[in-house]
Design brief:
six-stranded antiparallel β-sheet; Rossmann fold; Elongation Factor Tu (Ef-tu), domain 3; six-stranded parallel β-sheet; 2 domains; alpha/beta
Length: 316
């Protein structure tokens, strides 16, 4: 998959494509339906399938730390889009200049003149341009004279509910990982490179792999039974997502303790799939109380995986 970083990097060879535009946060099953429409148009017109996304996401730019929690960081989003078969992604830098782009100018200068879009697929609630002045009707009107077909994909529904990033955030905040998975189409996961931490886990007998949560807001916190993927291998473990209140921490962090694991993985990329929530994060009255709770958490996580394995074996 080709990644084009910024509108200024669109070249002549990128003229002529089918396109969809959006945040695609989480790349959930609703997004999958939009991508399906995109791929169908690409095949029918023999043109490359192209997705336009934004960094930061618009609400992150306007609302800063009041923006909704992000489900997927850029690297993971690109990997999921590539897995779906998207050929090109244009990652637009969402800044003040872009935010002030008049909707009609964006359509003419970028979609028509630069990209030569022949088919545009957008969600039914798509809005764009300065002050969100652009909508589906404007796209249709401007596209008609330029040979750009515009279609809207109706909101995909799962279990009689609209699949959306907002609904997934709500499920995650409530600790309902199964509902989130149903809407995402895959386990909710956090990934990144393992960094050096305070080494407190090692001192307490529970060494952890730490990943900084480089997002303005995290969609959940607490202690979870997890599966971590490192260099293609999967390990069971228990993880805390939060700011370590017992140590008066202020930085959001993912701390993963892997069972029967003794390797040094600093600097390596790790994907942590959250399988089951055990409890909320809490502040303890000293290290002894914390250690006892960690032991209980590890036992609970192992029991979860034992029961999951038994249930899976029984269904075969």
């Amino acid at each position: 998959m080709e990644l084009i970083r910024g509108i200024h990097n669109i070249r002549d060879q990128h003229h002529g494509c089918v396109l969809t535009i959006g945040n695609f946060d989480g790349v959930h099953l609703g997004h999958v339906e939009v991508i399906k429409g995109l791929l169908e148009d690409a095949k029918a017109l023999n043109l490359p399938s192209t997705v336009m996304i934004f960094e930061p996401q618009p609400q992150e730019f306007f609302c800063k730390d009041q923006a909704p929690a992000r489900l997927t960081r850029l690297r993971d989003k690109l990997a999921l889009l590539a897995k779906l078969g998207v050929e090109r992604v244009i990652c637009v830098s969402f800044n003040r200049k872009f935010a002030n782009f008049a909707a009609a100018d964006f359509v003419q200068q970028v979609l028509i003149d630069k990209l030569g879009v022949k088919a545009l697929t957008v969600g039914d609630d798509f809005r764009f341009g300065r002050g969100r002045e652009g909508d589906f009707s404007l796209l249709q009107a401007l596209g008609k004279g330029a040979g750009m077909a515009v279609k809207s994909t109706e909101s995909f529904k799962k279990a009689n509910a609209r699949v959306s990033s907002t609904a997934i955030r709500t499920a995650l905040k409530a600790g309902d990982l199964q509902l989130a998975k149903t809407m995402l189409g895959h386990d909710y996961a956090i990934s990144g490179r393992v960094i050096h931490g305070w080494k407190k886990g090692r001192e307490l007998g529970f060494p952890t792999a730490n990943v900084a949560l480089k997002r303005q807001v995290c969609p959940l916190n607490g202690v979870f039974a997890v599966q971590a993927v490192i260099a293609g291998r999967t390990y069971n473990g228990v993880a805390n997502v939060g700011n370590k209140p017992t140590f008066n921490g202020t930085r959001a962090l993912l701390e993963v303790h892997l069972f029967d694991f003794a390797q040094s993985i600093y600097g390596q990329f790790i994907e942590v799939k959250l399988k089951h929530k055990l409890r909320d994060e809490q502040k303890f009255n000293g290290l002894d109380e914390l250690v006892q709770q960690i032991k209980h958490d590890a036992i609970a996580a192992k029991q979860f995986f034992t029961l999951a394995t038994t249930a899976q074996s029984g269904s075969l």
